[in-house]
Amino acid sequence: MSMGTNIKTLREQRKLTQEQIAEKLDISFQAVSSWERDEYKPDTDKLIRLAELLDVSVSAIVEEKANTFKLKDAIYNWEHMKTYVKTTARNLKLKNTLKAVDYAVEAHFGQKRKKSDIPYIYHPLNLACHALSMGLTEDEIIAACMLHDVVEDCGKKPEELPVNDETKELVRLLTHEKTTDSNRDDMMKAYYDAIAENPKAALIKCIDRCNNLTTMSWGLSRDRIYRMIKETEEYFPRLLKVVKAEVDFNNAAWLLQYQMESMLDIYKRLM
Known about the structure:
Radius of gyration: 22 Å
Number of strands: 0
CATH class of the largest domain: Mainly Alpha
Low-confidence stretches: none
Distance between the termini: 19 Å
CATH architecture of the largest domain: Orthogonal Bundle
Mean pLDDT: 92
Number of domains: 2
Helix content: 55-70%
CATH topology of the largest domain: Hypothetical protein af1432
């Protein structure tokens, strides 16, 4: 696609009019129209401001795209994942997990993943399936994967969760309060410090981060993606070290580190 087609496509995806773009850039809507018809190209200053407005890289605007790819937000059907987790939990007699699955489905009912129509429950189910696929079958770990966001996002309290005390403690550790620009650094440091004291919580947090890295291209703004990259590089090497120190988690730690570092490298190159 041409630069003009890229601009028009990105503008329409964000439900912006030519007039709105023009107002933000302090130009006429005719100028925007001429860009989209490939009659003229924006100068460097306007191109940079346009990229910021559309929340994309400059290359996403200027590069001609010979091919377009069909994208999909979800790889697996969440109901199939739910069946898999519950069936596995029954076979392995994971009592906490069985309770956690149904509780999480109800607690997250009606919630969607950011900038998508995907039911939010897709995320905790992904974590549980990810853990099981790495051979992690400890009841508290899988149950906490399912419940890790219900306190933070659904207004639940750790003490009311239908699971044992160890699982409640894992969920409590994985829950953090909302931050502001002024207190974010201190609060996030304290949050990750506490998680690092518990290998199971560190393990679940690493699985959570891997899943969030794979979806942040469509769920987060460029500024949030930059922040996610910096946060991952600052805090997760320590968590991975904690996970690696546990013999039962060695294989999982290797896979998680590989996925995490691969995703970071891909995002850095594309951005």
